[in-house]
Amino acid sequence: MGMKKKSTKRLGEIIRSVVKEFNLHPCDINNGNCDTFAEKVQDECEKEGITVTVHDIDAWWGGHVYIKYENMCYDAEEPNGVTNFTQLPIYVRARRLKKLLTQHLTFQ
Question: pTM score, two decimals?
Answer without folding.
Answer: 0.83
